[in-house]
Amino acid sequence: MRTFLPLLAAAGVAHAHFTMQYIWVNGVDQGKNVGIRVPPNNNPVEDVSSPNIACNVNGATGVAQTISVPSGAEISFEWHQHDQRTGEDPISGGHKGPVQVYIAKAPSTAQSFSGSGSVWTKIYQAGITNASSQQWASDVVNANGGKHSVRLPTSLPAGEYLLRAEMIALHTASSYPGAQFYIGCAQIKIASGGSADPAKVSLPGAYSGSDPGIKINIYYPAISNYPAPGPAVWSG
Ligand SMILES: [Cu+2]
C-alpha cells in the first residue's frame, strides 16, 4: 500500500483540464454552451487518428442551436476548467501550447454536419508568442479570461459552418501520445459572404503523432519558432 501513496499524491497535483464553453460574436456573449457541441467531460483527446480529433467526444452529433454571425465577424472562444467562470484560472497555467482555429462548410445545415471528410480549413494559429519569456498562446488565453479571437474572412460564402477551436497542451508531449488536444466545435450561420473555396484537410488525417509540433519537448531546448501541426493558415 505504501508504494501507492506517491502516485496518489502525484495525481492530486495533476493539471485540471478544460472545455470551450462560450462563443462571442463581435463582442457579444452568446451564452453558455449555446451552439457548442459539448463533450461529456473536460478530458483532452490524445489520439490524433481518432474521429474525436475533429470535434471532441460526441462531436459528430449536432446541437439544436446554430449561432447567426455577420460576414467578417470577430468570433471569440472562451474556455474554462470547470463549470465556473471565476474563482480559478480559466485554463490551468501548466497547459502550455498553441491555439488554432479551423472552419468547415456544411453541405446543408450545421446541425446535420458531422465534420468528417476533407472539409477543414485553418484560419488561425498562434504558438510561441514571446520567445524570450517562452510565453505560449495558451498563456495569453489564460491571462485573458480564457478567451481568444479570430476574424472570419469576408470571402467565406454564405452558409452554415462548423467552427473548430483547438488548444494543444504540450507539457507532456515529449513522447506520443502525450500532447493533449482540447477541442471545441460551434455551429454558425453566415448570412452573406463571398465565393472563396480554400484548401481543405481532414480531421483525423491532418495530424500525425510524429509531427514536430505534436511530439515535442517544450522545456529544452527553448523554442523560438513553433512548428504548428496541420495546414498553413488561410487568411481569406
Ligand atoms: Cu489538463
TrEMBL record:
Chief location of this protein within or outside the cell: secreted
Location of this chain's protein in the cell: Secreted
Limits of the Auxiliary Activity family 9 catalytic domain: 17-222
A single MF term (Gene Ontology): cellulase activity
Keyword DNA damage carried by entry: no
Function per UniProt: Lytic polysaccharide monooxygenase (LMPO) that depolymerizes crystalline and amorphous polysaccharides via the oxidation of scissile alpha- or beta-(1-4)-glycosidic bonds, yielding C1 and/or C4 oxidation products. Catalysis by LPMOs requires the reduction of the active-site copper from Cu(II) to Cu(I) by a reducing agent and H(2)O(2) or O(2) as a cosubstrate.
Catalytic reaction(s) noted: [(1->4)-beta-D-glucosyl]n+m + reduced acceptor + O2 = 4-dehydro-beta-D-glucosyl-[(1->4)-beta-D-glucosyl]n-1 + [(1->4)-beta-D-glucosyl]m + acceptor + H2O
Segment forming the signal sequence: 1-16
Broad class of enzyme this protein falls into: oxidoreductase
Family under the similarity heading: Belongs to the polysaccharide monooxygenase AA9 family.
Cited Pfam families: AA9
BP GO terms, sorted: cellulose catabolic process
Domain comment (free text): Has a modular structure: an endo-beta-1,4-glucanase catalytic module at the N-terminus, a linker rich in serines and threonines, and a C-terminal carbohydrate-binding module (CBM).
Keyword tags: Carbohydrate metabolism, Cellulose degradation, Disulfide bond, Hydrolase, Polysaccharide degradation, Secreted, Signal
PANTHER family attached to this UniProt entry: ENDO-BETA-1,4-GLUCANASE D, PUTATIVE (AFU_ORTHOLOGUE AFUA_1G12560)-RELATED
InterPro entries referenced in this protein's UniProt entry, alphabetically: AA9, AA9_LPMO
Example of a GO cellular component annotation carried by this entry: extracellular region
This protein's name: AA9 family lytic polysaccharide monooxygenase
Organism: Pterulicium gracile
Tree of life domain: Eukaryota
This enzyme's EC code(s): 1.14.99.56
Keyword flag Secreted: yes
